[in-house]
Design brief:
elongated; 10 strands; 19% strand; alpha/beta; 9 helices; single chain
Length: 285
């Protein structure tokens, strides 16, 4: 990949159709190429069984040979399954208007692979659920926090089925990530023409409103309709409540930092917010 691409991770899980659809939407909005990635994670292969014990050497060698043959067959089947997944993803997005999506199939660890490809990524799209279950503890889900920590690119985490984004909520705390988020939204065609809900969680003070209004004006300057508010309370509850109240289609927020909003992405609250939200999250670094 010589041009920065929208990179979408597909693994055959329930979330894969939404990953395809959001990646296609982003690719078309950004006028950026789309690449699908499927990683054959070696941790999913059978490990060599310990055959030491009371069986004879000949029996042990025979069983090791059979295990090696089974391992090779399973690897071929997994590669073929991955190829079919990638073909289905390409067909899906082509039907939606994406021209010439590319595919990559890699062996190894998902997080390490994404770190290696990072320089070529404009936007990463990954599902909340993984192939081993529809929870954050599944295959891709188990890697999700590591991906967010490792990949220093905007990461769109899908949740539920695809819904054409009509409104966006930016969780704003005036920290570096969210100020950068304001600049990104203002400059990027990704959210062009969409109304923005600018939400700060904290005390309703003059200083807080000054920072919110600066951000609001920056977005309005490029044509966004902006609704701004400051609400006190638990960050998680306020944001999820606002999402429900205003039927928000996508949340944008900083992934890390020391403020109250970004702090909740460290530790068990990560799982809570990702499990409870009904909409995709665009995480900024």
């Amino acid at each position: 990949m010589t041009t920065q691409t929208v990179l979408a991770c597909v693994d055959g899980s329930k979330s894969s159709p939404a990953v395809c659809d959001y990646a296609a939407w982003a690719s078309l909005r950004l006028d950026a190429p789309l690449t699908f990635l499927h990683v054959l994670d070696h941790s999913q292969y059978p490990t060599e069984t310990n055959l030491s014990g009371n069986i004879g050497l000949g029996s042990r060698e025979h069983l090791l040979t059979e295990l090696a043959e089974l391992d090779e067959k399973r690897g071929k089947l997994m590669r073929e399954q991955g190829r079919l997944m990638l073909e289905a993803a390409v067909a899906r997005v082509k039907a939606g208007g994406v021209a010439d999506p590319a595919v990559r199939q890699r062996h190894g660890d998902l997080v390490e692979t994404l770190a290696e490809l990072e320089k070529d990524i404009r936007l990463l799209v990954i599902g909340r659920e993984g192939e081993e279950g529809d929870t954050v503890g599944g295959h891709v889900g188990s890697h999700l926090e590591s991906v967010i920590r490792t990949v220093h690119r905007p990461t769109l985490v899908t949740a539920g089925d695809f819904r054409q984004p009509r409104s966006v909520m930016l969780a704003f705390d005036n920290g570096p990530s969210t100020r950068k988020g304001i600049e990104m939204i203002a400059a990027s065609p990704l959210f062009k023409g969409l109304p923005i809900h600018l939400v700060m969680v904290g005390a309703d003070t003059k200083d807080a409103w000054e920072s919110v209004n600066v951000a609001k004006q920056a977005l309005e300057k490029v044509g966004h309709q902006v609704q701004a508010c400051i609400r006190a309370g638990n960050v998680e509850e306020v944001l999820l409540g606002y999402e429900e109240e205003h039927d928000i289609d996508m949340i944008v927020m900083g992934a890390y930092g020391h403020s109250r909003i970004r702090q909740f992405f460290v530790g068990s609250t990560t799982t809570t917010i990702l499990t409870r939200t009904k909409r995709p999250l665009l995480l900024l670094r």
